[in-house]
Amino acid sequence: QESESENKLDGETASDSESKSEFGGSPPVPTSDDTPEVLNRALSNLSSRWKNWWVRGILTLAMITFFFIIIYLGPMVLMTIVMCVQIKCFHEIITIGYNVYHSYDLPWFRTLSWYFLLCVNYFFYGETVTDYFFTLVQREEPLRILSKYHRFISFALYLTGFCMFVLSLVKKHYRLQFYMFGWTHVTLLIVVTQSHLIIHNLFEGMIWFIVPISCVICNDIMAYMFGFFFGRTPLIKLSPKKTWEGFIGGFFATVLFGLLLSYVMSGYRCFTCPVEFNNDTNSFTVDCEPSELFQLQEYNIPTVLQSVVGWKTVRMYPFQIHSIALSTFASLIGPFGGFFASGFKRAFKIKDFANTIPGHGGIMDRFDCQYLMATFVNVYIASFIRGPNPSKLIQQFLTLRPDQQLHIFNTLKAHLLDKGMLGSLED
Hints:
The chain is mainly α. The protein has 20 helices and 6 strands. A two-stranded antiparallel sheet has the order 1-2. GO terms for molecular function: phosphatidate cytidylyltransferase activity.
């Protein structure tokens, strides 16, 4: 009875036990962190609790420093890093599946997994290149052909992988192979799609990339700090170490951090301007006239709060108001990405996705909340921020045939005349 109740606590049912036998018996061995020997010697006199605190703290500072460096190096390096992180996260999740799958020595699973990763990246990044590098694509003949037939080529590549999977099916192990087929596709959905959205956010302006990521990092750190020093009340069974004190403390600290970071970054064009490709220099540029989002405006403070703060108005950037929504999501909903990852790890009885970063686990352990945040930011921009882009419309207009351009010109002219705008503009 005790063993049955333990299984229920872990969310395991009879069907899970049947799956165990098909997956080869024992689950993957939990991973452990490889703490550098230098840190082990330096922290040998501390308890395991404080040793873990110092290891996590030192590695966190190192990662934050690395984050500052890649921001300084510019958009192209940031995109490359996002791509590398995506590949590493995919590798960590697929490796868990491979540890279960390779017992039967079935063919092509690892090869097909990486092939599907290649296909999906070709599709998404091809769409991005066509969208953001339109003039360059139209200028180069090979790129123009690839752009024109991009979706057909992408579908043909995927169809090839699909046929390869069908041909790889082995008698008596069909169900296991379809488990792994689904495993690969869910991993692609979670990892590749979200990393693609991160790059789209980056093109809207580096501030839409840096602020959301920084809010998640801040919430992770502050929730850990508040939980470490004040945590008493467990938050969720999936993550026994998470506490309500850490969750609430992290929320308030993240909102305050988001407001301050947004105020600082909104004053710099290199952060607020959209990332655009300059066809003359063949490089990225981030120079523009700041939009209204990044211009200081005066807001009236509610009457209830005026007596408390002693001010009637406050000057702030409109983006700071949006940052409250971003930081609130990062601290209240973002952690559910971590809870989801915790449930996944508990299902396979592993501590971390990998042991890449001492004290932190694998890359996926650090980016489980970031992917959920990327989707929210992309949806938020599309719903509340982004409008029609005149420069992109002009680029597409210039690629049309002369007769098509003339037709659009006459249509637009007639429309402006009906509105009574063309005469006033000529005057």
